[in-house]
């Protein structure tokens, strides 16, 4: 490349300054996502959580469940609250609701081993219950490989990594253009190729995490034998029924009914009280 | 000779057939019966299970679970096994195992006791199940009758028992009771006549007969052992060989029918009942000489009365109801001294010694802040020199709810040693448990049993309480919902920013080059036009066309200025032209030269002397010189030419 073909230093400097400024602006929401919400909570929320725990220790599970549910209604979206709510549901025998709460906890905190253990315990208990009642029960199969690969990561984490690797990739390309030394140019090219792989990985993971492979939002069936009807009407014919704790995808809503597809099974309209969406 | 051979064959064939049949039969008969199938909550129910086997092998017996009942008393007897054959030959052994359970109902309802099973040679034999209905409320005291024989009508059996009791002799006190009979009689011997409550009484039942038995006597009624806990001392051991004794001048064969340890469960007068059996004297030789056949003999023993003493008051702890009789030792141990809250540790109590270890109960330890689950119990009972001994192990799971140090109190057991007549208060040492971690969930109390006791009842949803759930999270940041980064429009823009900047860095120089190359080509075009007009002027000179020559030359000079300097001076006055060119940095002499040439061309075009070839040549030369004299504009495009 001749000197006439290389970008001028002043141009590059201007571009770099502009890039830094815009990148900071773009990463500001990400930084906010990483930072804990350390704002002042209403005292009532902490009291609610404390009350819920005390009721749980006193074995008053109904009141404990009510406290945790009020926190969720108040807009709290915390993995610990969902976990405790799941435990209250589980101890009350509401295994479908327990599973949906544990799933929510894991989506917010993928590394929470307690939530993962509780989820597998709930599924095992559900299977045992169904086997005792019906003679046999299908143990839940493993999730798809794509879901298993992205499960340990939060959606926001993948988004930030994608952004960082994206900027890094093009920055390395730019540096390669201006570098004069051949060794440096090769090094920048290799680094750029590596970061490009990271871009694809992060981008692919983010796409899967956001349900790119599946239509609709993830959900859990709450009631054993919940009907899947042909239409969003309680008088519509029931074409199938779902097992409690089964995974499903909610496609759309019509009034008090949700169009759902059971994983590996039929689809139909279910009453919203029979199914809980686990991802927003 | 032939006749003797025929006789031999006649004897041998049936004997061998009988023996082979006996060996190959291996018949197992399993029977289960109860003295009553309709009872109240206060009644006791006696269930008897009998397993009779004709085989050299010992069957594996499965006693059913008595759900809905508490076992008040249990006993097992194994009657003597007899061999059939000549002399030492014993091709077949027949034996029977009899279990007796005294049950007390735990709740009202309809209960089905599963069948008892025995497995032999890969085949399983089962009795009929038993259905017992328990009514709420108090009932009449249970009849003190013999337990019903399996498969028989209990009412009929009770009537028969009542009748037989009316015929049986009255219980006799003593350590050795029997009713002498010249043919055969039963004798009951105990090692003590006034035991303490809970003390072992070793009891042996003998059969005295004048003739050697060819087959096992059929037991019509087992000796009753109401008020005793029974442990069979012959179980698993080969039966003693019959002996030959003289009683009052008569020789008898003596067979040991039963030997068991009886532990009185209460004080007062208790009776070890009489056994009733039928002795058959049938022989294979009877078919050769029917006159030799002897009738069956039925015999009933004499009940034995024991005076059971209560435990002595002196030194008795409490009311004495929790005192265990025997020589025992107590140890307690914790599997680990430190645990995380919510994690379980195991407290194990080991009671070892002589006595009825299976009846030992320890109070569950109470530790504030620690959940204690119901213990698991394991018994290992053995006998040594007809003395029952063993080990009972109780294991409690303990789950600390809170962090801290807990003291597990010492376990305690009151014992009474009948040999010394002394009470002992056994204790283990207190154990310290340290728990660390956050406060955990408290364990639930064991769920009350469902009221429906049928085997087809569905399990309650309280089964989720049995699962091992992780502990509650005591802290939470109570985070609020935040929108996903990828949903923000700014995020998409941020992703596009870097590629756009990079693209800009690539495209900007390209665009600049293109712009610069476009400017250079305009200039060259004008220069070519100027040169073309100069050539036209040369052509006009050659054709001596003065007006055209001067017009072309002037046009060439104007084009030249436009090409070099970018200024169009056509239409400008001379003063304006001078000003523009001087402003462009052109030197004054060149400006003057240019202006003079333009003036001469303008004048000569319309002058009659404008066709002078020499003058035109001189003007052309001066014009060409000006082409090279005027400076070219600065450019670095590759195609530009200066």
Task: Give the termini distance of chain A in whole angstroms.
Answer: 51 Å
Strand content of chain A: 5-15%
Low-confidence stretches of chain A at least 5 residues in length (pLDDT < 50)?
29-42
Order of strands across the biggest sheet of chain A?
A: 6-5-4-1-7
Average pLDDT figure of chain B: 79
Radius of gyration of chain A, Cα only, in angstroms?
Answer: 25 Å
Largest interface: A-B, 73 and 49 residues
Class computed from helices, strands and strand pairing of chain A: alpha+beta
Task: Please give the CATH architecture of the largest domain in chain B.
Answer: Sandwich
Number of helices of chain A: 9
Determine the fraction of residues in helical runs of chain B and give it as a percent range.
Answer: 10-25%
Main beta-sheet annotation of chain B: 7 strands, mixed
Distance between the termini of chain B: 155 Å
Beta-strand residue percentage of chain B? 25-35%
Number of strands of chain A: 7
Compose a concise summary of this entry.
With 280 residues, chain A is α+β, with helices and mostly antiparallel strands. Chain A has helices spanning 9-34, 43-57, 61-73, 79-91, 95-108, 113-134, 145-150, 155-178, 182-209; strands at residues 217-221, 226-229, 238-242, 247-254, 257-262, 267-271, 275-277. Chain B has four domains: 25-141, Immunoglobulin-like (Sandwich), CATH 2.60.40.740; 168-310, Immunoglobulin-like; 324-436, Immunoglobulin-like, CATH 2.60.40; 519-629, Up-down Bundle (Four Helix Bundle (Hemerythrin (Met), subunit A)), CATH 1.20.120.
